[in-house]
Amino acid sequence: MRKACSKQRTLSGRVELMMTVLALLACCAFSPNFAIAEEPPPLPLSPPSPKPPLAGEEQQFYLDAKQGWFWYEEPLPETEEAGQPPPQSLTTPTMDDHTSEELWNMHPDDFQALLMAFQKKAVQTPSEENVLDYLTMQDIARRKAAAYANVASYVIQKNPALDLGRDYPVTAPGVVARIRMQNEEVNRTILAAGEDHALLYFTRQSCPYCVEQRQILGFFIDRYGWQMKAIDVDEQPATAARFGITTTPSLLLINRHHQDFLPVGVGVISLNELEQKLYRAVRLLGGDITPTEYSVYEFQKGGGLDPGSLLKQ
Q1: CB-CB contact of 121 with 132 (8 Å)
Q2: What are 261's strand-pairing partners?
């Protein structure tokens, strides 16, 4: 009974509240000071001003903006027009279209393209006929290469000036003689340059490789009697910066008669490598050779390994 009365009172309160809200709305609607806001009339739209036409190059730029490798599209060659498929040449070649004489005398570029076309055809459809055609093309290419090698051997034998066997022999006795002449020339050049040249050795206390390089330099000084000055890059950073040294150990060749210098080693290098680099660097700084003759020994001058000998004939 109490619950029913409570629900009735609640319902009555809600009804009274709704009546009050409706009365307030009615009063506002008939009030002279009340007006429903209306949307302002839309402003007349002016037609957009026409854009100036783009120039030819600029217009083409926007048309081609999404073409190229970035969009995983292979650009068309300049000779092909957009929208036209590339020519389908050499897609299905057959041996019946060519004679042996024609294939033998064909331009190498054309022959290579035809050979690749036969290869693709055989891979795509590996039938007996297609594989036989491709292997036949390979046989022609092998015979052509053999013909060239035979003629080249004959021409070299007929023209001894083209044979490098004199300047760089490959037989065992020739190799021994060539190495002996190289070592004698290197040792003689380094010994003679000891009076005018010296080494700058850049090192630091925290460099573990510098210890090993110092021992190798000790063997070099005992053999050739050169002067060497060790420079700690941490104690003399200005000197290291002057020569552009950023790595230790580093070796520089200097000459007492001019300001030119040349790096001869970065990191640990062997005694034989040091001798070879010093031999070339001494000759280059002394003007005996040019950079194009950097690896040419004196006994090879004028031979087939001398790049400038052809111009001196």
Answers
A1: no
A2: 254
Amino acid identity, position 102: E
Q: What is the tens place of the pLDDT at every residue in 203-254?
A: 999 999 999 999 999 999 999 999 999 999 999 999 999 999 988 999 999 9
Structure tokens, 86: 């590339």
Structure tokens at 235: 């104690």
CB of 294 within 8 A of CB of 308?
no
- What is the rounded distance in angstroms from the CA atom of residue 269 to the CA atom of residue 272? 8
The rounded distance, in Å, linking the Cα atoms of 55 and 61 is 10
Q: Do residues 213 and 268 make contact, with C-beta atoms less than 8 angstroms apart?
A: yes
DSSP for 176-235 reads: HHHHHHHHHHHHHHHHHHTTTEEEEEEE-TT-HHHHHHHHHHHHHHHHH--EEEEEETTT
Sheet holding 197-203, edge to edge: 227-232, 197-203, 250-255, 258-266
Written as six digits, the tokens of 161 are 């000036």
DSSP track, 78-123: TTSPTTSPPP--SSS--GGGS-HHHHHTS-HHHHHHHHHHHHHHHH
Given a cut of 50, whether residue 177 has pLDDT beyond it is yes
- Rounded Cα–Cα distance for residues 238 and 135 (Å): 68
Query: What value, to the nearest 5°, has the Cα angle with vertex 131 and ends 127 and 134?
Result: 145
